[in-house]
Amino acid sequence: MGLQQFEDRLERLVEGTLAKPFRSNLQPVEIGRRLTREMDLHRRVGVRGLIAPNSFSVTLAKPDVDRFANFLDALVRELAEAAREHARNEQYIFVGPIDVQILEGPRLRAGRFNIDAEVIEGPDGLAPAELVLPGGGRVQIEGEPLVIGRMPECSIVLSDPNVSRRHAEVLRMNDAFMIRDLGSTNGTRVNGMPVRESYLSTGDSITVGSTTLIFEML
C-alpha cells in the first residue's frame, strides 16, 4: 500500500509526466521498492526493537539523473516518505534522521541503479521525531524545546490569529516527547482533548488555535 501511494503521489507531483517518458525505462517506484528491500535486509535488533537504515545513497546512471532532473527534489522527498511508511508498517525504528541522496554513477547503464543503506545515529543516539506542518513540511525536534507560536523567534511560526504569541512547546524527556501549553489563550489539544501537558505518541494530532500539526517518531 505504501509504495502504491508513493507512486501515486509522485505522479501527481510531476503532473502525470511519468507515463510516456518512463514506460520502457527506470520507474521511480522501482527505486522505492529497492529502498524498502534494503531496509529489510539491513535491519538489526536493538534494545527497543528492530532498527532500520535511515541513510540512503541512490546512485543512478547519468541518463536517468538527467531524465529525473525536473523533479529530483520531489523524488528525494517521496523516497524519504516511502521509508517512513515502510518503517511504520513493519514497526521499525530509526536512530537518526532520514537522509536520501541521489548520486550519479558514470559507469552505470541507463535503467541500472545501486542503493547503499546505512544506520547512522543522530547526535544523541535517540529516536528522532518531527512535527508535520499543515502544508506537509517537517520540523525536527532536537535537544532544545521547540516553541510554537506567532512570534518571529518561535521555532514554528504560525499566522493563525487564534494562536498565542508563545502558545506551546514540544520537548524531549529522555527517550520520550511531551507537549506543554505555555498559558495560551485558546489552549492546546492532543487528539481533540485539552491538555496542559501530555506525553506524545507517533501519529498524535496537536491542535493550537485553528492549526493542527502531527507528531511523528521516525
Average pLDDT for all residues: 86
Radius of gyration: 19 Å
- Main sheet: strands, sense, barrel: 6 strands, antiparallel
Discrete helix count: 4
Helix/strand-derived category reads alpha+beta
Number of strands: 17
**Sequence stretches where pLDDT stays below 50 over 5 or more residues:** none
Shape: elongated
Q: Estimate the helix proportion, in percent.
A: 10-25%
Q: What is the strand arrangement across the widest sheet?
A: 8-7-17-16-13-14
Order of helices and strands: HHEEEHHEEEEEEEEEEEEEE
- The separation of the N and C termini measures 19 Å
Measured by DSSP, the beta-strand proportion falls in 25-35%
Report what the structure shows.
The chain has 218 residues and is an alpha+beta fold. Helices cover 23% and strands 33% of the residues. It has helices spanning 2-13, 28-41, 62-67, 72-90; strands spanning 44-46, 49-51, 55-60, 92-93, 99-104, 113-118, 129-132, 138-141, 146-149, 156-157, 168-173, 176-181, 188-190, 193-195, 197-199, 205-208, 211-217. The strands form four sheets. A six-stranded antiparallel beta sheet has the order 8-7-17-16-13-14, with no helix packed on it. It has a five-stranded mixed beta sheet with strand order 10-9-11-12-15, with no helix packed on it. The two termini are 19 Å apart.
